[in-house]
Amino acid sequence: MTLPMIKISMTKKLINFLEKKNINLQVSEENMGPADLSQESNNDSHQLPVEIKSGEQNYHNDSNDEDLSEESIQISVRNGFIRKVYSILSVQLIITFGTVFLFQIPFLKSIVHTNQNAAGNILIFCSFAFLALFLILACNRNLTRTVPYNYYFLFAITLVESLACGIISSLYSFQIVATALALTIISTVAITFYACTTKTNFSYCRMGMFIVFSQLFMIGLIASLFRLHALYALYTFGMTIMIGIYLVYDTQLIMGKFGLAYSVDDYIFASLEIYIDIIREKIK
User: Fold this and answer.
1) pTM to 2 decimals?
2) 30 lies in a domain?
């Protein structure tokens, strides 16, 4: 038998098979009663809502999974920001504390003691240099986010503050300096722990803290000019408390616990704020 004849025979068999199936379907539909037809339609109607309901459930599950994934990404980004800030802060503190202990060497202490006028001029220069560098960063936030210039400014501020702290520490004995550093570390760790665990929101107290800080600054200026020791003691006590509150405030902004928070791109400015709080705490 040739190939065309085989194809024709197979086609005829397929047509006969389909015709038989069609006849069987028609017979089964004719034998079915109205009750069977209604039951079949009811089954179809019951299946449709189940499919719709399952589809809605899958949609809600997908949306919940997307929300959880976005939240986990935000938490991961914030944790990376926190690690970066405190890594930079650790380097700053190592440089500053190392400079402080360096000025405890007798040779450097003798140079500062024998050249107090020059040391005073260096302190004045450090104060104005710090103020100028800080204002540049504070007024130009894009600069704090531009690498490597943000690191250059941060390193310059750290050197200026370290030099000032070293000169001041050379005027005191090693025991007093070591005690001051130990108290600074203990108080910083305690305040940071409180800021991370407390439910009190300090992020909305910036204006009030600025007002109190300004008043304390004026009190300290008056006490220094007129040599009022009791008033200066009050100023020192109040300023110590305010610096601790500022440290709590800045820590909460870094953690982002209460809505207000530093942007993840402001890691330089955030580390600088904490660094300034700690240096103030040490000097006081």
Assistant:
1) 0.70
2) no
